[in-house]
Amino acid sequence: MTTADLSRTSAGSAARADLRQSVVLRVRALTKHFRREDRSIVPAVDEVSLDMSAGEFVVLLGPSGCGKTTLLRCIAGLEKPDSGSIEMYDRKVYSSAENINTMPEGRHVGMVFQSYALWPHMSAFDNVAYPLRARKVASGEIAGRVHDALRTVGIPELAKQFPGQMSGGQQQRVALARAIVSNNNLVLFDEPLSNVDAKVREQLRIELLEMQQKLNFAALYVTHDQTEAMALANRVAVMRKGKIAQLGSPRDVYDQPNSRYVSNFIGTSNEIPGQVVGEEDGFLVIDSPIGTTRAIGAVPGLRAGSKVSLVFRPERCALSANEPASGNRWLCTIDAALFLGSHTEHVIHVGERAFLIWSSNDMPFKRGETAWLSVASEHLRAVPAEEG
Ligand SMILES: Nc1ncnc2c1ncn2[C@@H]1O[C@H](COP(=O)(O)OP(=O)(O)O)[C@@H](O)[C@H]1O
Ligand SMILES: [Mg+2]
């Protein structure tokens, strides 16, 4: 339903108000190219569109160089995009068509950087007070708000400390307090925990999530760490070469990858090359070097002749001594059985193809034995063979 349709219904205006209120960020076809020293052009952000609702936690996940920081900096107003638009609530803060480009201070977003970016000559208190002073908040109000923010991030006792006198984790708490002190509805995070020790990182991750839920700001969080992404996100945007390759809940991107890239970037994946030969009962029929199989088409448009890759997760399949009566099944040889505590990893091969299979520890198979590998068609996904 479009906004125009909504306004014609009896509940129209209320519903429309709700719709508007709930969208904190609307990015449309945002593009930013850089010119390298050798004059080659890098499409750092390439036609990205993304909506975020109030209180939502969205994670941008992707390898180094895929454009995560550039996208965040464009949203914060620290980088001027080449084209597209950015709206916060109903306010355009950037539009190439309308020649709008609001300064960072006018965008009312908090930002937390990997490098903390604190003023070294200012105390924790003054660092946190900085955005309030920049916005000319009444001085009588500042102390209370700064102390509240420092309490929220768990370091009220460090108000007078300078950054050089604090641990990395404590400095990042100061940066977090600075990002939330203005009650921004949107806070941007650029790999904020990657300079913090592993132990403190897990603690801070949990605290950050609690704080975000309590204060109810929308968080757009950049990381290259898939575990971190899965732990924090309501929705994950998996990025590749300046584009969002897939956007969905952690469970969706894990269980329903739409490309080889996403299935390999998130979790572990087995792959078989193949070609679509037909359709049957809602599944694609696929010829592969290990025989004909039935699989789910992961994207629309796959048809007879399409080259695909069949992907499945190591835990979404089964090994058995006897041949299953029906379904996708292959006789395999066990190359290794590795006890990993919570489960056993079998390295197997079918013909010339090697796969990883994770099973419960009571699986009796040993190196050199043969077994049957079965993968339900629901768990075998056909994705395009070529990456776009
Ligand atoms: N100021 C710049 N000048 C030239 N190229 C840049 C600049 N900033 C980023 N890039 C390039 O843009 C691409 C995306 O970079 P970045 O957004 O930092 O990626 P990420 O944060 O995902 O690691 C990379 O290829 C990077 O080399
Ligand atoms: Mg980066």
Walk me through the structure.
This protein is an alpha+beta fold. The chain has 2 domains: 21-255, Rossmann fold, CATH 3.40.50; 273-384, RNA polymerase II/Efflux pump adaptor protein, barrel-sandwich hybrid domain (OB fold (Dihydrolipoamide Acetyltransferase, E2P), Beta Barrel). The protein is 26% helix and 36% strand. It is built from 10 helices and 21 strands. It has a 6-stranded mixed sheet, with helices on both faces. The chain has a 5-stranded antiparallel sheet with strand order 2-1-4-5-6. It has a 5-stranded mixed barrel with strand order 12-13-14-21-15. Strand 13 (283-288) and strand 14 (291-297) form a beta hairpin. The longest helix is centred in the middle third of the chain and has 18 residues, at 198-215. It is elongated. The two termini are 30 Å apart. Magnesium ion is lined by residues 68-69.
